[in-house]
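ARCHIVE CARD
Drawer: 12
Card no.: 0347
Subject: one protein chain, sequence and derived structure
Cross-reference: see card 0346
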Amino acid sequence: MTDSQPRRVHVVSLGCPKNRVDTELMMGRLLQGGFTPTPDADQADVLLVNTCAFIDSSKQESVDAILDMAEVKDRNPDARLVVAGCLSQRHAPELRESMPEVDFFIGTGEYQKLSELLELPPAVALATPAAAGLKKRRPAFIADHLYPRYVPPASFSTYLKIAEGCSQSCSFCIIPRLRGIQRSRTVDDIVDEARRLVEQGALELNLVAQDLTHYGEDLRDPDLLAKLVRQLGTVDGLRWVRLMYAYPHNFSDSLIDAIAQTDNCLPYLDMPLQHASDAVLEKMNRRTSRLEMETLLDKLRRRVDGLVLRTTLLVGHPGEREQDFDELYDFVQQQRFHRVGCFAYSQEQGTVSARMPEQLPTAVKRARKSRIMQLQQAISAEHLEQMVGQRYEVLVEGLSEESDLLLQGRYYGQAPEIDGVIYINDAPDNIGRGQLRTVEISEAHDYDLVGHVIA
C-alpha cells in the first residue's frame, strides 16, 4: 500500500452478532494493512456496510444504510463504497444494477479478500471473482484464531464464533444459502482465540454460530460442544461463558452436564424453538416435536441450577391455523420463559415455505405476534419482580443509556443487547466499566431492574 491509497475506514455493521464478528474480522485485516477506523463517515476514504438479509425488515435496513453511505460518497466522490455480507451474497447482481455508486460487493465467504480488493483500481476490483457472480458462489471460508480481528478497546464482553454456516433445512430459512454448509472450528483453535480475547480484556464470551448444538458434527464429533465448554472453563480470567443459538435437537446429556459443572459457563440458554404445534413444526421441517421440547426443557431446569431460558418464536407461518397458534400461546403460558423474541413470518424468495399455499395475511401475522409479546411481557415482569431483594453478581457496562446519573450492568440472566439491563443507583466512586460487583435488586420493571452495589 502506498501513502496515496485510502487510510480511513468508516463501518456500518448490521444484523446479528455473527455478522458483527465478520465486521471485526474485516476491520482487523484492514487495520493490519494500514487503515484506521473513523466514526465520521465524511472523513472516511472507505465506507463499508456489512449487511443483513434474513427477513424483509433487515433487508430494508441494509438498503437504507447503503443509501445513507451513498449520500456521503456524493459529498466525497473519492471515497470508495463497499457493501459486504448477506445482502451482497443474496442480491449482488440486482444491487449492482440499481446502485452503481457502490464500488463493489463482497459476499459472506469473500470478506477475507476485502483488503486486497481495496489495493486495486475500482474497475479492476469490480471485475474480480470476489466482487462478481456472488449468487453462484457457495461460501466456504471461516477464520481461525490467527486471522486478525479488531475488537474495540475495553470490550470486556464480546462474541466468539465457533462455526459458520448451517446444514439444517428449516423450510422458512434462507441462511444455508447465504452462509453455506456448517464449518466448525477445532476446540484448540477456539480456545486459543478465547485466551487472546481475555488477554485483551474480555471477561464475558458469548458463543455464537448459526446452529450451536450441531457444532462439531462436520468434524465427526457430536459431543464437541460439551468438550469445548469444559475447555473454556480452564481459561484463566474468563469469568462468563454464554451459549446462544442452541437449537433443541441434538442437545445431549453430556452438554447439559458440561453446562451444569463448568464454573464459568452461565446457567443461561438462548434456544430458538420457533413453535409448539407439531403440525407447524413439521411444515417448518424443525426435526422436533412439542413433547420432545417439553422433555428437554424439563431436564434442563432440573439439572442446571438457576437456569434462565430465552427463546425465539415464529408466528404466521403458511398453514398456521388458529388452533396451532392457540397451542403456541398455551406453550408460552406453561413454560414461562424468562425472555422471548417473536417474529412474524416473512416470505423469503428461495425458501420452501415461500412456495407453500395458505400464506397468511400480514394483519393476522402481526396480531398473533402482538398477542405473544403481550403475554410474555407479563411473564417477564413477574420473573423480574421475584428478583427484588435478591443479590447478583453484575457486570458493570458503564453509564446508563437512559441517564448519565446512573450506571448500568447485567447479571448472568441478561445477554448483551437483547435482554434488558440493571440500572445501578448510588454507585460508589470506585466502580467502573468491566467490573463484576454484587448488586441488590430494589425495583423491577417490565424488562429492566434497578439495584445498588453491596460489594
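Annotation on reverse: The first strand starts at residue 8 and ends at 13. The chain has three domains: 8-136, 157-385, 391-453.
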